[in-house]
Design goal:
There is one protein chain. With 326 residues, the protein is of the alpha+beta class. The chain has a single domain (6-19, 31-322), classed as Double-stranded beta-helix (4-Layer Sandwich), CATH 3.60.130. 32% of the residues lie in helices and 21% in strands. It is built from 9 helices and 17 strands. It has helices at residues 6-14, 34-39, 49-65, 82-95, 107-126, 192-202, 204-209, 245-250, 262-275, and strands at 44-46, 99-103, 128-129, 140-142, 163-166, 172-179, 183-184, 187-191, 214-217, 226-229, 232-234, 239-241, 282-284, 290-295, 299-303, 306-307, 315-322. α6 crosses α9 (262-275). It is globular, with a radius of gyration of 19 Å. The two termini are 21 Å apart. 42% of the residues are buried.
């Protein structure tokens, strides 16, 4: 299979090596603050004419193959020298700052289907794409779905609500901006590696608590109402994080053992306060044709609420990727 099932990707992502709890900050290139990200903008890259020509040629060849999206293999997609650039960006995501923003994809000219094909083919060269829910959806449509009916289990990306800082259940999340809302929908990023280190400096009790299991609300997409995950994991060299403020907190709706302790609420509040602070929160507004790629092991992302244009609603494509090396 050229892509992972939801269960396979989920298991791969949470299989994070952990040998011990560190005694203090870990550091590393992934531990940046907003000022450093704004000062060194090499993580923002622009497609040039050569890139565009190679992408268009590859998409034409793939279209001629008439292979369903989920059956495409990396070998089916020949990006030429553009593939070399993709490998460099993957290295930055996995071993560097954990974020890359690629600008200039021709989404307005391509239309929705070709944009989906382009996003998927790029994902094949960055890692192994995977399903984003038990139903097997391969590319998430990030837009307001509540007019189609919603429940308490509706996932937040299917609404126009603000989403607090979180990670997704994959090594990398990609967001291709097809159409932006006229008001709101600002993207926010923060280094969870840097927040981990800051907690050790000023709130070590909270840092230590986040190395212990926390109940995560599955939103009716798992066999149990909630699962236990460790937000922080350290392998003796590198810290990897998983954080989801909203779903850690909403697990309490199930009652019983899922009720958070005061110590956990204190730790979540401390993490959120740092992530939302001017020091750590990098703010940006994705433009149409932007592809934002983020490591879910070292970066948390969030979104402000938005107001749609009913005739041209906000629409992003979400890609989840597993990386083979750790």
């Amino acid at each position: 299979m050229t892509h992972r099932t939801f269960e396979q990707q989920y298991a791969h992502y949470f299989d994070r090596p952990s040998s011990r709890v560190p005694s203090g900050p870990v550091g590393g290139s992934a531990a940046w603050d907003a000022g450093a990200l704004e000062e060194d903008t090499t993580w923002v890259v622009h497609l040039d004419d050569s890139d565009e020509a190679e992408i268009e040629a590859a998409l034409d060849r793939v279209t001629d193959l008439r292979i369903p999206l989920g059956d495409l293999d990396r070998s089916d997609v020949d990006f030429g020298s553009f593939a070399t650039r993709l490998r460099g960006w993957r290295d930055e995501i996995e071993h560097g700052r954990g974020v890359v923003l690629i600008r200039g994809f021709s989404v307005n000219r391509w239309g929705e289907q070709r944009t989906k094909l382009a996003t998927w083919c790029i994902g094949l060269h960055l890692g192994q794409p995977g399903a984003q829910n038990p139903r097997g959806d391969l590319l998430g449509d990030v837009r307001e779905h509540r007019h189609d009916g919603a429940s308490v289990n509706t996932r937040l990306y299917q609404t126009n609500d603000a989403i607090r800082f979180h990670c997704d259940y994959a090594d990398v999340v990609g967001l291709m901006c097809v159409r932006q809302a006229p008001v709101g929908g600002e993207s926010r990023l923060a280094s969870s590696a840097a927040i981990h280190d800051e907690l050790w400096r000023y709130a070590p009790r909270s840092a230590h608590r986040l190395y212990q299991p926390v109940w995560l609300d599955t939103r009716d997409e798992g066999p149990n109402p909630a699962i236990a995950v460790n937000p922080f994991a350290f392998d003796g060299r590198r810290v990897r994080t998983f954080y989801h403020s909203d779903y850690f907190r909403s697990a309490a709706r199930h009652g019983g053992v899922y009720q958070p302790s005061s110590e956990l609420i204190e730790a979540l509040d401390a993490f959120d306060s740092l992530a939302e602070s001017q020091r750590f929160c990098a703010r940006m507004r994705l433009q149409e044709g932007d592809l934002q790629l983020v490591s879910n092991h070292s970066v948390v992302h969030a979104r402000t609420t938005f107001t749609d244009d009913p005739d041209a609603p906000r629409h992003l494509l979400r890609l989840w990727l597993s990386l083979d090396t750790r």
